[in-house]
Amino acid sequence: MERIITIFRIQAEQIFKKTWKIGVATSTKPASDFKVQGYIEGLESLIDPCVFIDDDGQAYLYHGGPDIAHAYKLKENMMEIDGERHIITGLDGFREGLFIFKRENLYYAMYPDDFPKYNKMRYAVSDNPFGPFECKGVFLDHTDIITMHGSAVEFKDQWYVFYHNGSLSGGIPTNRSICFEPLEFNEDGTINMVRQTLGVELPTFHKDINFNGMMGTLALGDYTQSDLKQAGILPNDISSIEIPEGFVVEGFEQDNFKGKSWTFEENRIDLNEMGCNDKISSLKISKSNTDNLLKNASFELATQGQVKYWFNRAPKPFVRTKDDTASGYYALQYKGSEKPKALVQKVSLSPNTTYELSAKLKVEKGTLGEVIFDTNGSFDNTAKFDLDAKTKAGEWVSFKSEFNSGDLTEIELRCITSEGFDGAGYWDDVVLQKK
Fold it and tell me: Coil, strand or helix: which one is 39?
């Protein structure tokens, strides 16, 4: 076709589902200059369109959700339906996000299911693009966010599945990261369970910020300038680092582990933010010896302004702010005059086990009310820390307590302020570990 055509979902002026329509835009370029052509008439108000072009050039449009999926032939212009609607059957647990592809004369329908708590990716097969389909079950397990949409494509005789997770954002549902894995088929056409490969296995070093220009990886050990060069990593040229769980990376400004140093044990570090971009000349890589059950315990990591692994639906005005007076390079700050919704992290517990909880709090001078860290009432005041500016202003104060989990298997740790709070409060260095 001379034009590259994209089918997209348009939500009309009202937010009600009855107003959802499917629109068409066209361009002679794959990534720009699209011109809206209008809506495809004759469709019901369903979502998540997918266009599949069969071997004979016939185009089909699929859409649906929740619980129902429809299919149509498209006319040659790909802007009008051709013939009657077909209801797709056999999609057990269908939620939305239907994607159709074909392999060796077998049509595959892949889709996220609606079984709680997180979507898994299922697939069904048919010898006809309109079905009926036979569900073959789950081939991609859930990720760390509720929704999972995906697609599949063949490239150089290898099939791949594309999907999304929250690994870069720490599971923030709206900050999704695109992933892909190889798809492996059996002789009968069934799909093997996909192994999700997340992140790096060793500390990985990049020439550019934003984790571009990868130079290489390093195992445990000490590395001088000469060692780094042999590994393909240029001294004074490291701009970002990816660090898998369990590793600690210490960088030194001078060769042979001298001069100013910086220590990192979080998973994605942009050195420009730390002021050591292109300044590291030697490295020490060791294993982490922490038993902390929390992730991002010192609020070092953020994606699109949201602190990783600490949640609420509207996190602002909680922000990560530069502060190296406690642990790491950042702290969590709340600045305002209204009580915010708590920023929380849920952690699994072992029953009837004693735990130690600690945190550092700070309040700016002149602040009214208290900055609080607690367990959301799970243990009354046993594990509740609060600090006001009258008690201590402008300095970090350390808190520590012990509790027994009893029958609990999960705890919600909260950063919050008291009623009538007006000012600025800070949290840092939160540790939860077994005694």
Answer: strand
Distance CA 349, CA 404 (A): 10
Nearest Cα neighbor of 100 from 75, 74, 133 is 133
Residue 30 backbone phi and psi in degrees, to 5? -75, -20
Rounded distance between C-alpha atoms, residue 43 and residue 81, angstroms: 8
For the stretch 167-195, pLDDT in tens is 777 677 777 888 999 999 999 999 999 99
How far does CA 428 lie from the centroid of its chain? 22
Tokens (6 digits) for 373:
């860290």
- Give bridge partners of residue 96 from the DSSP assignment: none
Write the CB contacts of 53 (distance below 8 Å, at least 6 apart in sequence).
59, 60
CA-nearest of 107, 96, 126, 113 to 52 is: 107
Q: How far is CA 251 from CA 39, 261, 276, in A?
A: 56, 5, 9
Q: Give me the numbers of helices (H) and strands (E) for the chain, helices first please.
A: 2, 33
Q: How far apart are CA 426 and CA 396, in angstroms?
A: 9
Which whole-number Å values give the CA distances from 255 to 165, 233, 247, 328, in the listed order?
Answer: 39, 14, 21, 23
CA–CA distances in Å: residue 363 to residues 301, 309, 422:
22, 23, 11
The residue length of the chain stands at 435
Cis-peptide into 49, omega within 30 deg: no
Model pLDDT, residue 366: 95
